[in-house]
Amino acid sequence: MTIRLVLADDQALLRKGFRMILEAEDDIEIVGEAADGHDALRLVDLYAPDVILMDVRMPSMDGIEATRAITASGSLSRVLVLTTFDLDEYAFSALRAGASGFLLKDVPPAELLGAVRTVARGDAVVSPRITKRLLEEYAHQLPDLSAPERSTSAVAPALAQLTEREREVLLAVAEGLSNAEIAERLFVSEATVKSHVGRLLAKLGLRDRVQVVVLAFQTGLVRPS
Fold first, then answer.
1. Helices (H) and strands (E) in the chain, counts
2. What separation, in Å, do the N-terminal and C-terminal C-alpha atoms of the chain show?
3. How would you write the pLDDT of the chain (225 residues) with one tens digit per residue?
4. Residue (of 90, 35, 46) closest to 68 by Cα position
5. Where would I find the beta strands (DSSP E) of 56-136?
């Protein structure tokens, strides 16, 4: 499968650098470049790319607003956010807006390529180190869905639908574990883990593993240490 990709960053030199890395791969095709969120949305409508590499800080329309618009539109294009700092409130906001993960702009080429391919497969890039730091830093800004006054939230009945094994998988995903690592922990096959992840995503109405991580912290299933 050829991965169709849009680069969205207001810095032309950075776009050129990423293009050089990505275009060297036989399975990746860059179908367009955007200098702001408006351009990114136009290219998503025009080309329906598999992945958008999205800078969070751009003029006119930033990457957060663009990500939110792409997610709300029902587009199958998936957003991989680019950020300069690993503790970036913009990056966390982008995750909540529906991004499938985020990368530092100085990411090694091999990690960049792996992340693009992971997101294109429909999975998400959840770095245990960076995601945990973001959640710990900004957890106080999250609504407490486990509070008594929020007990009638639609989230609570959805969580109650999960089987014991699905809940175990949810907690493992929230730790940032891969399917292989979860399979090893639970003594099951990776295929079984993948099935559990798919079912819990469907039951909770979530797009991917990033949203599982955020939900686990929002509901109090996982607490920042």
1. 11, 5
2. 41
3. 899 999 999 999 999 999 999 999 999 999 999 999 999 999 999 999 999 999 988 988 999 999 999 988 989 999 998 888 665 677 677 777 888 888 888 889 998 999 999 899 887 776 655 656 655 665 555 444 344 444 435 566 778 889 999 999 998 888 777 788 899 999 999 899 999 999 999 998 887 777 787 787 777 776 655
4. 90
5. 78-83, 102-104
Q: Residue 171 corresponds to which tokens in the numbers above?
A: 């907690």
Q: Which residues contact 61 (CB under 8 A, 6 or more apart)?
A: 36, 37, 38, 40, 41
Contacts by 72-78, CB closer than 8 A, 24 or more apart: 72/98, 75/44, 75/48, 76/48, 76/50, 77/6, 77/44, 77/48, 77/49, 77/50, 77/51, 77/52, 78/50, 78/51, 78/52, 78/119, 78/120, 78/122, 78/208
Give the span between the Cα atoms of 57 and 9, in whole angstroms: 8
- The strand order across the sheet containing 51-55 reads 28-34, 3-8, 51-55, 78-83, 102-104
